[in-house]
Design brief:
39% of the residues lie in helices and 38% in strands. It contains five helices and six strands, in the order αααββαββββα. The protein starts with a helix and ends with a helix.
Length: 151
């Protein structure tokens, strides 16, 4: 393609009009996912759920998918009910377009003490809302940590 100086100048001037770059969109998608986790960390479900689509798909470990904001609440509230405090330690993040990967160490405090759970999350974000959220972790880690705390 042979660009003249004037066509190159027009292309450069139109870049801001054409929308965000892929890198900017990935950064925005990461920010949405991080804001969601920050709200979930303090169990602020109403603010967290503002960041998800109404028909969001959520997969929690090996459990079947649930859909919608109520699906997320019905899955997570029983788990978080005995928890007094959370700390989500972000270890690594990566983005690829609409997909956000977050590796973290979830720390949960119950009356008997703290337990930790390594978690990998994959979010899909579109137009500033989470459309899919998948969490991967080892359920045996929770079982063993809880058994140790209950001794």
């Amino acid at each position: 393609m042979n660009l003249t100086k004037s066509s190159f100048l027009v292309a450069v001037l139109l870049l801001p009009v054409m929308g965000a770059t892929a890198e900017e969109e990935s950064d925005e998608n990461l920010e949405v996912a991080m804001s969601y986790l920050k709200a979930m960390e303090i169990m602020d479900y109403s603010n967290a759920l503002e960041l998800v689509e109404d028909n969001v798909e959520y997969i929690n470990g090996a459990s079947p998918a649930v859909y919608g904001k109520d699906g997320i609440l019905n899955t997570l509230q029983p788990f978080f009910e005995p928890i007094q405090e959370n700390e989500f330690v972000i270890l690594r993040t990566a983005t690829d377009g609409d997909v956000v990967f977050i590796e973290r160490l979830d720390r949960h405090r119950i009356p008997q003490g703290w337990f930790e759970l390594p978690v990998n999350s994959i979010f899909e974000v579109s137009n500033g809302k989470i459309t899919k959220w998948r969490e991967y972790f080892d359920r045996a880690t929770i079982r063993d940590a809880m058994a140790e705390l209950m001794q």
